[in-house]
Amino acid sequence: MKIIKSFICISLVLMAITISGCSSKTDNDNVEKLSQEIVNEETVNKNEYFSNQKSITEKLNAELEKKPTLENPFTIVDPFEISPLTAIVIFTTEEPTQISVVINGKDEYTIIKHTFSNFSKKHIVPIYGLYAGVNNKVDIIAKTKTGEESKKTIELQTDDLPEDISKVKVNVADKEKMKEGLTFFDCPHVNGNYMLAIDSNGDIRWYLSSKKLNGSVMLTHLKNGNMIVSSGETIPNTYNNLSTVFEISPLGECFAAYNVYGIHHDIREKSNGNLIMGASKEGRDSQNDYIVEVDRKTGNIVDSWDLKEILPMSEYVADQPYTGGTSNWLHNNAIWYDENNDDFVISGRHQNVVAKFNAKTKELKWVLSATIGNKNKDFEQYLLKPVGDDFEYPTAQHAAMLLPDNRLMLFDNTNFDILDEDGTVDQNKLYSRAVIYNIDENNKTIKQDWQYGKERGKELYSSFVSDVDYLGENHYLIDFGGQYKDDNGTVYDHIYTDAKIKNASNKTTTLIEILNDKVIFEAILYGNSNSNSYKAERKDIYQGI
After folding, report:
1. Among 67, 51, 13, which Cα is nearest to 35's?
2. Residue range 155-181, pLDDT digits in tens
3. Contact 251/225 with Cβ under 8 angstroms?
4. What is the reported pTM?
C-alpha cells in the first residue's frame, strides 16, 4: 500500500482552495495566501469548530509574509485544531520550485508520498498521515525547473490518541496486493465514535478530534480531496436526520455548509460538482424518502425526487419486522447515480427493496424485492424474476451501486428470517454478505453472480449499516460494520435483540478486502463503546490536490 501519487493540479500547497477547482497561478504570481470561498459562510462561522478559522488563516498568512526558508521552515501540527494527525509547513524559495513530501512509515507500504504539480516561490504545504504520540520524520523536497533539488527533514511531534478511540487488530495483510491508500471509517451515530483512517498495519493515521462531526451521513469523499462531515445536530423526531453538513479538507478547514432539511445516509457528487443528497421533505410526516440535488456553488436545491411519488405503494408503511411505521416507511439508505444513463438506484431497507428509475422521467425501470410485491400489485410489471438455483434475495440491504459493467452490487444484511420457533435469534441462521447480481432489464430477470460472507456465518453477521465498495476488477472492500457480540461469541441483532442486551455487547466492525476471491486484508475495529461503522472507503488522503 505504498502511496506515491502526482497530480496535475494543486490547491493546498498554496492553499488557494476553491470549491470549483484548482488554482491557475503563474510563476510570477507569488502572492498566494490561505484563501477561502465559503458557501453559506454565516453557518460556517457560527459553528463551534469553524468559528476561529478566519483568525487561524490570518496567522498562517502572517507567517508566510515573514519569508521562512526551507532550511528553517515554520511548522504547526493540527493547525485547524480538529485534525490532530495533520500539519502545515510554511517556507519560501528563491526561485519557483515544485514540492514533494514524504511522511515516513513503519515499512515501505505505509510511507505516504505526494508530489504537488505546480511551481511557486511561496509554499504552504499540508502534511497528512502522521502517527500519533511520536516525533514524526517528514521529508520536504523542493525541485527547480532545471532539476536541482533541496531537501529538508523536519520532525513533527503529535499527541497520543484519545483513550476512547477504537483499537484495530489486523488478522490478514497481503500488502503487495492491497489497494493503495488509507481506509476511512465512520460511525453510524452522532457522538458514537471518531471518524478515522488506518493504514495496512492497522495504525490510525488520521482522525477528527470531535465525535460530533461523525455519524448519519459521513464518508463522502469529493473529487477535490475534501469530504462531507456531519453538523452533529440531528432534527428532533427523525432518524438521525441533519439540517446541515460541512465540506472540509483533511486538515479540518471548512469551505462550505450545505443547509438541507433531513440530510441522511448518502451523498453523491455529480461530474459538474453538484451533490445528490438523501433527504426528507419538510412539512410532512414521513422521512428518508426524498432526494435532492444541491448546487455546489450556491448551496441551493436545484432538483428533487419524491420517492413517495415514484414508488407505487398501496400504503406507505414499513414492512414487518421494521418499526418505521408510516414515518420511516422506506428508509432509503443508498443513492447511486448513473450519469451516463441519468438513472438512480436506491435502497429502501424497510421494504427490502432496491429499485432503478430514470432521473428525468421519474419512471421505474426495475424493482428487486422478495416482499414489496406481496401487498403492492402495481409493482408486478417492474419486479425482477430470479434465475438460477443459487439466487437469494437481499433483505435490509445497504450500499447498492452499479459496477462499471452495469451489474448490481450491494451489502445484504439478511436480518429478516432469523428467528427460531421460540422467537429468539437462531445463531445458525445468521450471516451477512456482499453480493453481485446480473440484471437483464429487457426480460426483467436477475441472477446472482458472486457473494462473500455467507460461508462465514454468524462470525460476520452485521444486522444494520455496513458497506461494500468496488476497488477494481474482482477487487472489493467489504465493511461488516454493524456487529453485536458478547464475550462468549453470541451474536445479537439490531431489531430482534433487546436494546439493553445489544447496547451492552461489543459493538465491532470487521473490514475485509478481497481480490480474486481471496482475502488479502482483514481488520477488526473494537474496544470503543461503539466501534460499529456505517461505511468504509479506501482513499489516497492526498486525492485531488
Report:
1. 13
2. 999 999 999 999 999 999 999 999 999
3. no
4. 0.93
